[in-house]
Design brief:
By secondary structure, this protein is of the alpha+beta class. It contains 6 helices and 7 strands; from the N terminus they run H-E-E-E-E-H-E-H-E-H-E-H-H. A hairpin with a 2-residue loop joins strand 1 and strand 2. The longest helix has 18 residues. It starts with 12 loop residues before the first helix and ends with a helix. The relative contact order is 0.18.
């Protein structure tokens, strides 16, 4: 587990899963070696997957990195009364906490640029979550080629300090004692 100066503010995995249950969500995290997958379902219907987040934990200079390769919501979310961005917050919190538990210091992702409107929404969402823009991957340089090979497309590369993310969103997940 990563060391922290804010340990009393950081929600545990139990806190996050309890908060998701109170929103009628059930989130399951599975791991195979350094690879992880978090899947979300409605509490009362485990047959219909609502979304998933996948990635890998990898060693890097300065500490382990949580590489969030994808976060996708399914068509089943269209029928939900909740915002898919709310679901994204719970899925994201589970994988960020997993990274924290595995000793990661940083999370990285690519806000994919499939369409300009949706891309702008993704970037705003991740900025609200606590990520910062690192690089615009648009295919215009050799450096972009490496990003495109790793991430599988064009978009906005974003990073966040894992501990800062957990502290920022602690009120959403911590139980009041």
């Amino acid at each position: 587990m990563a060391t922290t100066s804010h340990s009393s503010l950081i929600p545990s995995m139990h806190d996050i899963l309890s908060a998701s249950t109170s929103q009628r969500l059930k989130i399951h995290l599975s791991m195979v070696g350094p690879f992880f997958c978090a899947k979300a379902y409605l509490s009362d219907n485990s047959a219909v997957e609502l979304g998933r987040a996948e990635g890998v934990i990898r060693p890097w200079i300065g500490g382990k990195v949580l590489h969030v390769d994808s976060m996708r919501m399914t068509r089943a979310t269209v029928e939900m009364e909740k915002s898919i961005f709310g679901l994204g917050l719970f899925l994201g919190a589970v994988v960020i906490r997993h990274g924290f538990d595995e000793g990661c210091v940083r999370a990285e992702l690519l806000a994919i640029n499939d369409t300009p409107v949706y891309h702008n929404k993704l970037v705003r969402f991740y900025k609200r979550m606590g990520f910062r823009v690192v690089h615009e991957v648009d295919g215009s340089s050799m450096n972009d080629l490496a990003h495109m090979l790793v991430w599988g497309g064009r978009g906005t590369r974003m990073d966040a300090d894992i501990e800062e993310l957990l502290v920022k969103w602690s009120r959403k997940f911590k139980t009041i004692s």
